[in-house]
Structures are given as structure tokens and as C-alpha cells.
Design a protein that fits this description.
Blueprint lengths: L9 H12 L6 H24 L10 H15 L1
């Protein structure tokens, strides 16, 4: 798998560590892959919604989608 180096804020690093420590994720790589899947889904949804000319505020931002997904992940754990 290709390696990519990114910079994140100390708060983001702490959030990733907390998610690993509480057992929500096994590794930081798993957290980042999950975030990228959600980002990709959000981009595709946004493009789809733009094609339908949605009303303002009809789509969620990536942060909202990630929060929803994480809440669902916790409920099913």
C-alpha cells in the first residue's frame, strides 16, 4: 500500500489516539482510511445533489457525516 505523509493538528492526533484507546479503531491508519471513505462518499453525494439542484442546506458536510458514522459505529459495537 502506498505511504503518504500528512500533517494533522495536535487535537486531531489526540482524537485519533482516543478512538484507538477506547477500542473504536485498531490503528490510526484505520481511522484515516475511514475518514477518507467518508470524504469520498460526501464528495459523491455532493456532486449528485448538485446535479439535482438541491435547496440550500440540503447536503451534510463531511464532519457531520463522520460524526453520524462514528455514532452509528458506537451503537453497533
Amino acid at each position: 500500500m502506498p505511504m503518504v505523509t500528512v500533517s494533522i493538528s495536535p487535537l486531531q492526533a489526540a482524537d485519533i489516539r482516543a478512538a484507538i484507546d477506547d477500542g473504536s479503531y485498531v490503528s490510526s491508519s484505520e481511522v484515516v482510511r475511514e475518514a477518507l471513505r467518508l470524504w469520498d462518499a460526501a464528495r459523491k453525494m455532493d456532486a449528485s445533489l448538485r446535479n439535482r439542484h438541491p435547496a440550500a442546506g440540503d447536503s451534510k458536510c463531511v464532519a457531520d457525516m463522520f460524526a453520524d458514522h462514528e455514532a452509528e459505529h458506537r451503537r453497533s459495537a
